[in-house]
Each structure stands twice: as structure tokens, then as C-alpha cells.
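Lecture 7 notes: from sequence to structure.
We start with the chain below.
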Amino acid sequence: MTQHSHAIQGLAGAVTSLQLENIPVEIVNIAKRCMIDVCGVTLAGATTESAKAFFDAATETYGAGCCNVVGTPHSLNAPGAAFANGACAHALDFDDNCYAGVVHGSAVVFPAVLAVAQQRGGTGAELLLGFLAGLEVEFAVAKALSNSIYDNGWWTTSVLGAIGSAAGAAKIAGLNRNATEHALALAAVGAGATRAVRGTSAKHYYCGRAAESGVVAVMAAERGATGPVNAFEDQFGIPGVLNDGEFNAKAIETLGMQFGISDPGIDVKKYPVCYASHAAVDATKEIMVTHGLKAEDVASVHCTVPPIVVSNLTYSTPRTTAEAQFSLEFAIATIIEYGDITLEHLEIDLIESESIQRLLTRIDVTVGDVPEQHRASNNICPEWGSVELLTHSGARKFAFAGSPVGSASRPLSDDMLQKKFYSCTQYRNNANAPLFLYDRLRNIELFGNIQGLFS
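Predicted C-alpha cells for the same chain:
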């Protein structure tokens, strides 16, 4: 990509020139796996009280339309469906993650591109291309900002997600380069939530709002609305206001040639809890399985983790499902008691059960460094976990997980992804979960009018 006066010009140029036939097949396949995963977790999320609350609000706020609210028999107009589906996609915190920006990319971008594709009668190939365009723009901007914006307290899923959803929606809508620039500019100056949202349904709300924001930005730009094309260079733009002025525009120049979906890659969750807990959970499970231990054998567990884990997992004694998803102690207790963490383990009766509450008192967490013997590894993610487990017999067992199963470096197998998808469709016996959807998504580029995707 050539250099531009403004980063948004480079982003818009990449979006308008991106073609599916020029994208490596391995990149396309990763995108299809993301699409399968986000559709599954959205179907499950639609059954939650949080999603129902936001759907009810959406029906009163937005007009009727032809865009599916996934996991329900209802439809709304494009902004309304993008909002409702974004809230559903993140309602169970089971959606994917990317360390470019520490964002939940698919849960924002997919609802936006799905809504616009259904509104305009787009094809499966157009949906896939828009999805990829949105993710890659989001990841490129994230790389330019670095993860310091997340460290500064901004919930990047919202801040950057609106830009990604605008890019994907603009691609499907067929906006020209000038209109795409203004759609991206409109989205870029509407920065979203802070990380104080964790453990509450505000996370779901702002995921939906980011999806909706991108759709509305595209609709407005298509009709002539303008935004500040210098949104990243202006002293009061995102870098200047939210990121201490840091912005490496070179990350934009490789857009369309290098793919964030591959590097740093996508982490697909094996467990329906905050990804920050997954490595420590895997390390604990390794100890339990390797040594044939049962819950009654465990006297205490000590977890050593990096600062980002502690800053995300703030509920040591959770009382709600949302709090449990942001509790390392709960995740460790559940894997010890049940050998797994599934959607069913998030029910309030289990969270409050005597066995889980007893185990919570035996688990402590401290911030520390990667154990010396593992520091040479090239497979250590930012949210690694080290676990020391003491048994009642006095035996001490250790395990370290640099990256959890499901991470970009240790991806779920196709069978594991399919199993996760079907477990989501069966969650709470959702009668509106189409079981045929998995096969359609595997071959989404061959599908016709996206209005019929869920029919």
C-alpha cells in the first residue's frame, strides 16, 4: 500500500481494493472458522436475560426490517439487528479474541456485516469478504495504536470495533473510496467504552453499540455525511486523546498484504469465561489429569499470572454469572470440580453450590513472572498461567501453560470447533437454533442471498 497523508485514506483504499480471489486460502479458512464460532456463540447468547433485555430495547428503538436477530424468530432493520446481534454475540463471553488491540473482533464485525448483507441482498461471498475487510481494518488500527490503549483502560472491543464494523459494512454496501473514508472517520471519532464494563452486561451493550455504530456510519456516509479524515492525526483524535499520541501509521501500509487474522491470529475460546483465565485453567487441568486427582484431594491452589490477568479477573467471590466469567478462582474451582467449564456450569445454582464455594477459599492468585525454566519458549501469550497445587497428602504439583488450547498457536481442531458450535445450538434448548447452519457456514462463499442464511 502506498503512503497517504491520512491513515483513514489508506484504510479506505485497502477496503475498496480488497478482493476475495486475492486473499490466501488459509486466511479465508480462518475467517470461516471465526464465522462458525461467532454464529454459534450468538445462538447461545440469544437465550440469556442480558440479550433479551437488549433485544426488547432494540424493538422499541429501531424499525422493522428484513435482518435476522440470530437465535430468535424476529427481524429488525440493519442498525437494530447489528445492535441486538452484537449484544447476543458477547452475552456469554464465549466469542473469539485477538491480541492485536486485545479485542473481541468477530462479535462486533460479524453482526454489522450480516445486517448490511441481509438488508441489501448480499451473497455469502460478499458477506465473507466484508467480514475479512472489517476484521483486518480493526486489527491494523489496533497494531498502529499498540496495546497501550487497552492498558490505559479503554475497552478496545468498543473503541476499535466501530471502525472495523464500518469498514466491513462499507465493503458490502459497495461504497466508493471517498464515502468509505467518511464512514471510517465517523466511526473513528465516536470512541466507546472503558474497561470498567467487565463483569456486567455493559460489555454486551457496547459490543452491540459498536456494531450498530459502524452500520449507521456507512448509511450516513452513503448519503453524504462527512467525518474528519484526519481523525488519527488530529491532536484530539484517538491517539492524542486516548493513547498518549502513540500511532504507528506503518501498520496501515501492510493492510491487505499481511493479515492480523493470522498474525497475531485469532484465539477461539474453549471455555465460556474471560480468556485471561484459560491458560491457568489448562495448567490446573493438566495437574488434575496427569496425577489422577479429584476435587477432594485438593488442599490449595496458587496461581501466578501476569498483571493483565489480575486486571481483568477482578471477582474472587463471584455472585452472578457475569462475575463468575471474570473470576479466575471460579474458573479454577470449576475445572477442579467438574474437569471442564461449559455453558451449563455458569448457572447461578452451580456458582453458589457448596462445593464451588468451598474450593474458592482454597485458591489464591498473585502477579509474577514466567517461571525461569519456561522463559525461552516462543509460545507464551500475554495471559499465561503458572499453577502450584498442594494435595491433602502434602504433595506439590506444578504446571505451566504459556498459551491455552484454542489460542492462535494451539487452535481448536475442526472437530472441537464443531462440537462447540453444536453445544451452543443446544444451549437451553433454543428452538430457534438452525442445526443446518454449520454446513452452510463451512461453504459460505458458495451461498446465495444471505437473507436466507437462517431459513
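Points to note: The mean pLDDT is 96. Residues 124-145 form the longest helix (22 residues).
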